[in-house]
Amino acid sequence: MKVLVAPDKFKGSLTAAEVAAAVADGLADACPSLEVATLPVADGGDGTVDAAVAAGYERVTVPARGPTGVPVTASYAVRGDTAVVELAEASGLHRLPGAPAPLTATSAGTGDVIAAAVAAGCRRIVLGVGGSACTDGGAGLLTALGARLLDSSGRELPFGGAALARLASLDVSGLSRVDIELASDVDNPLYGPSGAAFVYGPQKGASPADVETLDSALRHWASIAGPEFADRPGAGAAGGVGFAAMAVLGARMRPGISLLLSLLGFESALAGASLVVTGEGSLDRQTLSGKAPAGVARAAAAAGIPCVAVSGRCLLSASELAEAGISAAYALTDVEPDPARCMAEAAPLLRRLAGRIAAEHVAR
Fold first, then answer.
1. N or C: which end of the chain has fewer CB within 10 A?
2. Ranges of each domain in the chain
3. What start and end residues bound the annotated signal peptide (predicted)?
């Protein structure tokens, strides 16, 4: 019997590769003769580059600007002429040097990473757009690729979403054109009650007044850069990076987990498997909205292979799990009620849970 272990990360505790290794070890403990294959996955958010590297892509490290313009070292993954770029690598919340910067944070660093990949010969960019610190409508990304955003006096705008309110013209004559596919599970429009500022701005430190400022600025930005794209599903991804990529760069939006599974070689890894084990830190309602475990379970079901999940905690009912294609869930809280210990001792606890999975789902 073969088992494929294909989890996402346990955020704040274990990377996807570490989760996969712990589960694989536990399965091997229980069934030494069992064939176990591991394929760490991601859905376009943080951990996407790591998952690509675990699947055989090469990691490339480059300098970039963080969300406040402070230099950072970021990386992308490459195989052939395809680069996997993770927006959170340069423009993520974890890159903020202390306090949030909701009005001035920029996506320019993500543009720096894309520019470096293109300069290295990459012709296809898969951009995972999750975990951003900015709500700049993707303006920073465009400037890093050669666009110019000018005010009424012909001066270039400073970074950040708030400055877009002063935009008078967008000059794309120097813009580098690249083939971009957006990997995202976000379907929000650019602005409005369901838009980037109102839904995600508070997570990035925006006050109610900041949210109003940013939403108004994004409306103005859309009126100049491409009003017909503002309502497209995913335009609000990563603070509006989805909008800029689609409206100005001609990018295509695809469900993050579906795109990543294709890139990572999930179909090949699945061959011969009788069971799939997926998972993430929290199985909850968001899981059902296109997160990695649901995508893995859906792909496994399409091949007629049952899927179970591991997690730090599970907030889904049996019927909700079944809706996602997951036949059973095993949470760290099942064996350790203390959340702090679950976080600190996630790997050995997962190894124990894998023993339960082997006992209940693996033929001996």
1. C
2. 2-39+273-361, 48-257
3. none
CA end-to-end span of the chain, whole Å?
9
Tell the burial category of 71 from Cβ atoms under 10 Å away from its Cβ (0-12, 13-18, 19+): exposed
Residue 76 contacts residue 48 (beta carbons within 8 Å): no
Report domain 48-257's class: alpha beta
For the stretch 66-116, pLDDT in tens is 999 999 999 999 999 999 999 999 999 999 988 999 999 999 999 999 999
For 2-39+273-361, which CATH class?
A: alpha beta
Instruction: Please list the alpha-helical segments (H only) found in the chain.
Output: 16-30, 48-54, 87-91, 108-119, 139-144, 196-200, 208-225, 241-247, 256-264, 266-270, 292-302, 318-323, 332-335, 339-344, 346-361
179 touches 123 (CB < 8 A)? yes
Q: Which residue has the tokens 């610190």?
A: 133
Q: Quick one: how far is CA 114 from the chain centroid?
A: 16
pLDDT digits (tens, 9 = 90+) for 293-334: 999 999 999 999 999 999 999 999 999 999 999 999 999 999
